[in-house]
Structure formats: structure tokens, C-alpha cells
Amino acid sequence: xxxxxxxxxxxxxxxxxxxxxxxxxxxxxxxxxxxxxxxxxxxxxxxxxxxxxxxxxxxxxxxxxxxxxxxxxxxxxxxxxxxxxxxxxxxxxxxxxxxxxxxxxxxxxxxxxxxxxxxxxxxxxxxxxxxxxxxxxxxxxxxxxxxxxxxxxxxxxxxxxxxxxxxxxxxxxxxxxxxxxxxxxxxxxxxxxxxxxxxxxxxxxxxxxxxxxxxxxxxxxxxxxxxxxxxxxxxxxxxxxxxxxxxxxxxxxxxxxxxxxxxxxxxxxxxxxxxxxxxxxxxxxxxxxxxxxxxxxxxxxxxxxxxxxxxxxxxxxxxxxxxxxxxxxxxxxxxxxxxxxxxxxxxxxxxxxxxxxxxxxxxxxxxxxxxx
Length: 372
Description:
This protein has helices spanning 2-9, 21-33, 44-48, 70-80, 95-103, 116-171, 178-205, 217-227, 229-232, 254-271, 304-307, 325-335; strands at 13-17, 37-41, 58-62, 64-65, 68-69, 85-90, 108-111, 208-211, 213-216, 237-243, 249-252, 276-284, 290-297, 339-343, 351-357, 368-371. By secondary structure, it is of the alpha/beta class. The strands form five sheets. It has a five-stranded parallel beta sheet with strand order 2-1-3-6-7. Strands 10-12-13-15-14 form a five-stranded mixed beta sheet, covered by helices on one side. A two-stranded antiparallel sheet has the order 4-5.
């Protein structure tokens, strides 16, 4: 975490390698006005001897300096500051030098006299490239973590199945010791809990594959409600529908969307005491190619500080739970091209708002879609 904070703190630092005092002042005025931290040196030697080159967001180089040409120092600068944007300021367009510099990974050329708009536009491009690179690196790391988690989960489930088989064998043998019976039951519950956790970990880490087809979304949430009959029959619970959409047919993966509603209903049933009332409100969204579905309940609701965190992996308000259910729900909804948010309700109770596209990206076709 400290490295992240340090990187953010120095993300606005710019080093200018410029021997002309007036040009240095011009650069300083432009960059400090835009909130950058400005430093300047007069020679390539001073620049290459800096120990903190990797701390700079960008390096602005005059092409012709007292001790050499900027392109001659590019390999060393790029090696010492691989993530910094490098801009060369030149008074003439030299094609050979430009090609040589581009081969060493410079980000832009700026012609003299320096135009403030051109310099700002160049730095904006550098920042966007840096953000894109950081997102790519983060995606690669998450993909590697996902593969590792899937492998560990798979192997762990194999070991747990062996433990479960051993428990089955022991429970099939007669015993008069109540402590042994209780211990075996405890081991079984532990195995089942770990199996459930590992299953959710694998599902969270794996790509979501969608098999879309045109389907009645109301039938999907009704099937999800029916699948929880063993839970909502234990209390006075009812599902209330309010359909205001012209049509609730859309292009979805039926299995995955049933998983979405089952998870939302299950959370509501766990939170609500009798009488539990869960309402599904469906209407046409804006634009019209979206369906807006609101799932609400009459439970205690979510405090404001928790509403923004319920989709975070491993965040849970339950005494028992992995905290992955709503994270998986969000991934499924977003894989469909929709979105889900936790909202304020008109009264007490939890409220989730979903927007689901009516059509898939390939209109009228069954499509497979992967989202990492």
C-alpha cells in the first residue's frame, strides 16, 4: 500500500533537461500552473546521474544539449525510467533522428518555440497511455491470480471429497458415543462449508461464459423464487411483482440470470423476519433498449456506508458467508452488458437496481460471450 501511495504522490513530477534558462522558465510556468511538480537540469549527464528517475511522470528533453543529443541517452533513460513519458523538444524536424528516438520508446516530439497547448495535449496523451498500461498490468495480474485460485480450489475440493468419504464411512458404523457423533457431524459441516467457499472462489475467478437466448425474464425470477421454496416456506414470505414494461423478453443466459435473482432473493430472505415481502418491479429503461428491474425487501436495509461495498469481493454482513455472492452477481450482470447498483429505498429495506439490455450484441442470435 505504501508503494501505491508513494507512486500517486510523485505521479505529477516532471523533469526538464534543458540548458536554456528562458526555456526552463517557460516550461516551469506552464507546468506549475497545471499543478505539476517541476525540476530542471542542464545536461544529459545530470539527468542520467539522478537516482530517482523512475519517480518522474514525464521527462522533457531538449534534443541538442551541451554534452550530446537527446537520442543518444534514450536507452539509459528508458532503462532507468521505464514508465515515464519521454518528450523531445526540437527546433527542426529530423526524420532519421525521429525514427531512432521512436525506436527507443519516446512518446512525443514538441517543436520550438514551445506551445503550451501542444505541451499539455502531449502530457494528457502520456497520462492516458500510462493509465492504459497500468490497467493492462493489473488485468494480467488478476488473470494470473484467477488461474492460481482455480487450481488451488480444484485440488482442495479433491482432498475435501476424500475427507467427506471418510466421514461417510465412519458414520455408517454404529457408535454409542454421542461425542463421536457430534464430532463427525461437525467435520461434515466444515467440509460442506469449505466446498461451498471453494466453489464460489472458482466461479469468481473463472471467466463467465454466456449462452444467450430470447427468454421471458419474469419466468427466470419466478424459477429462482421457486428454487428457494425450502427457505421461504419456513416463514411468512411472498414475492410481489409489479410489471410495467411493454415486454420482459430479452436476450440472456437463463441459468446465469436465475443465479442473479436467486442470490438477491436469498439475501433478502436471510435479512427479513416474518412477514417477509420481496418486490420485483420491472419497467422500460432509458434508453428503451434496457429493462430496469428493482428488487427490494422490507428488511432492515443496508447502512449507507455498506451500500457502496456490498459488491466488493469477500465483504459480507452475514455471520456466515464468503462475501462473493454479490460480486459474482455483478460480474454476471456486467457480462450481459448491464449494471447493478445498491440504491436508497423509499422506506426501510434493501434495494437493488438492475439494468439489462433487451438485445444481445448480436441481435436475434444466440451468442457466447466471455468476460474475464
